[in-house]
Amino acid sequence: MKRIFRLFPVFLLLSGTSCQTRIPVEEVLLPRPMQIERQRGNLPLKEPLQLSIEAPDTTVARLRHSLPACGLPLDADLRPVHSATPPRPTDNRPTLRLRIADDARLPASEEGYRLTISRRGIELSARGEAGLFYGFQTLRQLHDRYGDRLPALEITDAPRFAYRGLHLDVSRHFFDAEFVKKQLRMMAALKLNRFHWHLTDGAGWRLAIDRYPELTERAAWRQGATWQAWRDGGQRYSRRGDPQASGGYYTKEEIREVVACADSLHITIIPEIEFPSHSEEVLAVYPALSCSGRPGTTGDFCIGSEATFEFLENVLTEVLELFPSAMIHIGGDEAAKTGWATCPKCRERMRREGLTSTDELQSYAIRRIGRFLAEHGRRMIGWDEILDGGLAPGAVVMSWRGEEGGRKAAAAGHDVVMTPGSHCYLDGYQDNPTTEPQAFSGYLPLRKVYAYDPAPASMPGRERVLGVQANLWTEYIPTPEQAEYMLYPRLFALAEVAWSTPEGKDYADFHRRALWLTERARAAGYRTFDLAHEQGERLESLAETDHLARGCRVDYAAPWSEQYAAGGDGALTDGVRGSWSYGTRWQGFLACDVDVTLDLGEIRPLREVTADFIQWYSAWIWLPRRVEISVSDDGQEFRPLATLTNDYPEEAERPAYRAFGWQGSDRGRYIRYRALRNGRPGGWLFTDEIIVR
Ligand code: ACM
Ligand code: ZN
What we know:
This protein is of the alpha/beta class.
C-alpha cells in the first residue's frame, strides 16, 4: 500500500562547494551510471524544496531517518513524516519528490533508480528502498560537485552485480567499530552492499562469544603489537590485561551497532568464522580441538572429533543471533590437512564415512557445517577450497586463487563471488614497491583493478557470478591510516567494476573521476593514497630495450620454470622488460641457479653486460648471492669479466630491483651469465633480460 506524504518545505543548506568551472556530469559520478541524459538548464537550490514521499510506511520511516544524511543538508527542523502531518498548500517552489513505484520505465532491479533534475525540482523513483538510497548517493555526488546549481539531467541506473563487496581482515590487526562504520559509509557512497568481516584467524579472535569467554580473554590478545612482531616472536598469545597484551575484540553491543549502521546503509554484513583451518588462536586456548591435543602445533581443527563440531555450532549459533545475513562465511581456505592423515580420530572418521582422502575429509566438515547453516535458514559461503572433495549444492564459492575456482564452481552450478588475488587483493603494492610502505603480495595498481571483468562474455556459467569483492588482508597494515591508504582509491575501481557495465570502460575517464573522489575523500577525513602523485609502472617495462644480444640464442644450463616462463627460451634477449609485478615478463628459476650462455653470432667489442634481479621476500624470490660473468670467443674457453656479490639483506621484506653487471672494455662472442642462488630452500631467482652493449 502506498501513501503520499507531504512534508514542510525543507531548505537545502548548501555545503559551500559552489563551483565556477562546470565539469561535465560524466566526469563526476563514480560508479558510472548506466545512462545519463544531460538536459539544458539547471536547478538553483537557493529556494526551499518541497518534499514529497510516495512509499510504503516502513520505507517512509526509514527515509525520514536517512534523509538528513543524503548530503543535501536539510532543515534541522525536518518534521517527522506522519500521516497526520497536514499537507502544505503547494506553491511554485521546486520539489524533491521521492517515489517507490512499479513503473515500467524503471530498471528491473530493486537497487535501480531514475533521477530527474529539472528547473521544477528533483524526482527520484525506484522500485525499492535500496534504489532510492542509491539515487541519493548519486544526488549526493552531484551536489558535492555542483553545489547550489544542480545540472538538469535524467539518470537511469542499476547495478551490474547484486553482490558488491569489501572484505576486511581484523584478525592480523584489529580495527575498532568506529573505523568499520567509517568504511561502511564510504562503501555506501560507492554503492557497495556486502561487507565481509574476517573476524577470526590465527592472529586473533575478534568477536565476543558468551559461551566461550576465553576466546576473547586469551585468543584476542597476543605478544606483538604488529603482526610481524607477533610472527617473529613465535606467535605467542596473551591474556587481556597482561602488560604486553596487544589486540582487541568487538563486544556484542558493538557488533549490533555496526550491523544496524550497515543496515541503514543498505549493506549486509557477512561474518566469517574460519574453519577448519586458520584457527591457531582457538587451538591455543582449546588445544583438545586439534589432532595433536597440544597448543602451537597447527591451525587445523581435528575433524575426527565431535567436540570440534560442537564448538563450531555453538559459536555459529551466537553468530547467527548477531548477524541477519542470509550468507555466513565459514572460511575453508588453506587447511594444511597434514595432521588429519595420521590422527586416529580423523582416520576413524574417514573409515566410517567412507572417505578416501583428506580433501574428502575437509569436504565432509564443510558439508556438515553447510547443513547446520541450512537448518538455520542460512546459506554457506566459503573460499574456493570448499570445492575440493565435493561441495553441497546451495553453497556459494568465493574464488580467490585466481578465477579458476569461480569458473569451476559456476560450471558445477554454484553461485560464485569473484575475488581473485590478481585483481582484488588490495594488500598488494599500488605503486612503486621500492618506495611504497611495506605491503604484502604483488603489484596491483588502480588501473589493474579497474580492468577486471568478473564475468566476461566468454565465461561459461557467467550468470552464476553474483558479483565481485575487494579483500583487505592486514598482515602489513597495522594502522587505520594504512588501511585507508590501501583501500582508496582502489576500492573506487572495484565499485565501478561491480556496479557499472563493462561497455564503455575507459580508464582515462575513470581516472579523472577517481582523482576528484580521492580529493573529496581526503577532505572528508579518509587518508587515501595520493593518486595525483602516482609514479606508475616500472619505466624499463614501458619501452623495449635494444642491445647487442637482442634476439640472440640463449643456452640454459638449468631450466626456467614453466610457472614463470615469460616467453620461454627467448625471454632473456627479447628486449622486453619486467614490470613491478614479478608475474610479468620476469623469468623465474625455482631452486636452481641462473646459468645461461648467450651467442652473439660473432666476436664483438663489449662495454657492458648486465641483468636485473628482484627480491620479493613474501613470494620467496631472492636476489642472487653472487653473480659471475665471463666471456669466450669459441664457447669453450671462458675468461672472467666480473664477480659480483649482493649486499641487499636477505631478511629485508621490502621488494628490491637490482642490476648485477660488468662495465669495461673487452671482446668476445659467447657470454656466460651465472647468478647463484642463496641457500633458502625452494627459493626463486627472477630476471628479465641479459643486456649486452
Ligand atoms: C585467502 O586469501 N587465504 C582466502
Ligand atoms: Zn584429528
